[in-house]
Amino acid sequence: MKSILAAGGTCLLAILCILVAGCTTTPATSTAQTPTATLTAPTPEVIIPATTASVAATPAAAEYATYTSPAYGLTLSYPKEWQAQESGELAMRDYGKTTTNIVNIFSPGTDTYVTFSVDVDPNQTSDLEQYYNSAVIAIQKTYPGLQLTKHSAQLKVSDNYAYRADYQYSHTDSVRKDYGFQVYTIVDKTPYIFTYQVQNLTPTDKTYANNLDEAQDIVKSVAITPVTLSQKSR
User: Fold this and answer.
1) CA–CA separation, 91 and 26 (whole Å)
2) Cβ(160)–Cβ(186) under 8 Å?
3) Is the CB of residue 75 less than 8 Å from the CB of residue 222?
4) pLDDT at position 112, please?
5) CB 101 within 8 A of CB 4
6) How many CA atoms lie within 13 Å of 114's alpha carbon, on the beta-carbon side?
7) What are phi and psi of 105, to 5 degrees?
8) Does domain 3-231 have CATH number 3.40.1000.10?
9) Strand locations in the chain, DSSP E?
10) How far apart are alpha carbons 215 and 211 in whole angstroms?
11) pLDDT tens digits for 69-101?
12) Separation of alpha carbons 121 and 103, rounded Å
């Protein structure tokens, strides 16, 4: 929870970044497997429907800026009023992995802390379901106050199967909560983690919901081109 946390000091995930890592890896069957991690949340429901298109329609150029990381074969679009800051820092994430934080994108304004982070895990794997389940279990053990509210295995990121988990975190000493979601996908055995999080919200604060569409659009815009590990900067 540090990716989210990495962007905000004491922030959470970098999951759930959270909250830390490209021939394209695709499950053997045409249908994504359902995660097996035990969730303490209400009955899961699909948040983002699966699409056959590799990348969603490109946002209007007048409203979006483009971020590209040649080292990781990553390109995405984000609201032009948001600010992107490259990191490249290694960070220990809440699911027991040392990931590389590629970029953190911050929404405007200072009243709340809204971040969208991208991490890659240098530890290679082809098993998305196992990776996702291990991350969820580790995060729940680390943060007893964290509750998974939804999860979905019915989405794709750059034409690769992906899992998404939505969560909320209750601070023990406050009525304020952190809200966010994390999307996991694997390209050429390299896990990519996309995290959206808003911290310290009161029960009536709508900041999370107000920025949710923009965060989901960023995920939909992602294009990942496989690159060899030797090309990737550490």
Assistant:
1) 27
2) yes
3) yes
4) 59
5) no
6) 21
7) -115, 125
8) yes
9) 64-69, 74-79, 83-92, 98-106, 114-120, 146-157, 160-170, 177-187, 190-201, 223-224
10) 6
11) 999 999 999 999 999 999 877 776 777 778 899
12) 14
In whole angstroms, what is the distance from residue 3 CA to residue 16 CA? 9
Alpha helix positions (H), the chain: 3-7, 128-142, 207-221
Listed as ranges, residues in the chain with pLDDT below 50 are: 1-32, 38-62, 230-231, 233-234
All residues at 6 or more sequence positions from 204 whose CB lies less than 8 Å from its CB, including other chains: none
Overall pTM surpassing 0.85 (yes/no): no
Domains of the chain, by residue range, sit at: 3-231
Judge contact between 56 and 75, C-beta under 8 A: no
The DSSP call for residue 10 is: S
CA distance from start to end of the chain: 20
Cα-based torsion angle of the residue sequence 219, 95, 1, 33 in order, rounded to the nearest 10 degrees: 30
